Amino acid sequence: MKNISAVILAAGEGTRMNSNLPKILHKMGSKPMLGHVIDNVQDAGIENIFIITGYKSELVEKYVGQKAKCVQQKNLLGTGDAVWQINDEEIFKNKDQRLLIIYGDTPLITCTTIKNLLEKHCENNAAGTLLTVRTNNPVGYGRIVRNAVGNLAKIVEENDATVYERAIEEINVGVYVFKANELFDALKKVKPDNKKKEYYLTDVVAVMNNAKLMINAVETLDQDEILGVNSRESLAQAYEIFRNRILKKTVASGVTVLDLKTTFIDEAVQIGKDTVIYPFTIIESNVVVGENCSLGPFCRVRSGSNIANNVNLGNFVEFNRSSIGEFSKVKHQSYIGDTDIEDNVNIGAGTIVANYDGKNKNKTIIKSGAFIGTGTILVAPVKIGKYAMTGAGTVVTRNKDVPDNTVVIGIPARELKKTNKLIANG
Ligand code: UD1
Ligand code: CA
Fold first, then answer.
1. Which of 94, 134, 213, 304 would staple 321 via disulfide (CB 3.0–4.6 Å)?
2. Are 303 and 286 in contact (CB under 8 A)?
3. pLDDT in tens, 98-115
């Protein structure tokens, strides 16, 4: 979207997290809260993004990399002061633009909500538009004070609120769109006359109202989106909401999840129809699972894995950066790492791939139709040929590839016989 830039506030320490890491770098699922906010803003179509950094800015800058421009706030004087940092010709030239402001600690606000807010803002040609929600638990949020005719009058922070204002159930979500020029004019007039002695961004509402500029509140109905993460407890609550969103989409697309409470599926996971997921299963990000598969119970599929249709990964199986072809099975207590398993392969109970030699992660290839006996150890790099078999307890040592149609046994593995028969996939 042209003519609109975004500022994400991420300078705060987040003292209530009680952590050495800046709050917004704490992960919700596989990526930091800040990553979620950046992605949501980008998905709403905004390309030009500023991140206000402060506490341990070098860590935040390292994470942000090329995704956005970082601007340092030297002294953390409040959210108004944070936005003020981009009021510099060198940083943000074209002030005729509109500016979206969002906080780095609200990772659940979706790109749809951001888009709606932008639309409403442009429709009304307002100087500013912000998002509110009604909640029966407004504790900790800024309260929305409306005037006698119901228009937005001001925002009051909890610390500064009267008993009556604290009873208000409409709160400030912390997402705003402003005409940039008008915003910076208003920010000039904001004073730190509150309990925390900070320059509050929220005070621009009263300033703009005094200047007779149009400032609107748009109410959203989704209470789940607004959660601002201020403590580890609220981070866990945010993750729970995030996890449930993914589970909801997953089951709606035709996947059976037997126990929603103990199933953890990250974002960027694709699962085919009629796959069944048993309890205590974890699927990390960037995984593809085909149709008609069976996963778990107690199965962990790690990032970068690819599972074809009709595959069975059973109890206590860890499947890491690996792929597996159709009708193959790893049913009991195995570690499979950096391994490509083709179709119709049976991996016996307790098979372990020793993929790490202390320095490198090495690859293993298991060709189609192979039958790996119970308790086999495959020391990578190694290749198991088509329709090859290993006996129970075999250790196949590194680079000692097993040729096609060959049965090996023992430690280290030695050839027992050739087999021309096609081994049934049992
Ligand atoms: C803020 C809002 C509140 C709203 C709530 C929604 C203000 C004054 N209050 O309160 O109305 O209901 O969010 O979650 O804006 N930050 C900086 N520099 C600073 C101070 C803060 O970058 O000098 C960043 C923080 O890192 C954080 C964000 O701004 O990501 C919000 O600050 P926080 O202290 O969490 O504000 P709240 O008290 O939650
Ligand atoms: Ca907050």
1. 304
2. yes
3. 999 999 999 999 999 999
